[in-house]
Specification:
Elements lengths: L1 H22 L4 H5 L9 H20 L10 H9 L6 H21 L6 E6 L2 E6 H25 L13
Antiparallel strand pairs: 1-2
Helix pairs in contact: 1-5, 1-6, 3-5, 3-6
Length: about 160
Amino acid sequence: MREILTLQARYNQFANDNMLKVLETLSPSDLQKDVGVYYTSIIGTFIHILEADIAILLDIINSYAPNPLDTKALQDALASGLQNKSFESLITLRRQADRLIIDLVDSIADFNAVRELSFPGISFKKSIAQYFLSILNHGTHHRGQIAAILDIMNVPNDFAGMLGM
């Protein structure tokens, strides 16, 4: 399981890096334009992916590691509100989160351990491996939304190919 999760975490890092290269070419108004998706804009969707990675993987799942990673800077950034950050600082946080997620996969001792996660109105009881896969695939889903927005804007993009890693 570790090998599969490491591959997926490295893929997410690869895809995020390539996506950021495209997003860095856009104007702030293009990043913030309301395009009618659930999180409104490219930047809103990008922030949502980062928030989930920090809150679920780097906070909750990290707490199950025998030696939890130091994620204080990311937790502090999340607590102060990612919507208030500059795009440059969001890029730094994204890259930091991607490195820590790979380290987190390496630090988990038992991927079969079942844990319960509760959010307002819903609760999940799954293995740590299932949580990892869910959140890593969550990023893939929302990067796909960003790619579709870029397609509609006629911005060339092709940052999702796992075979190209």
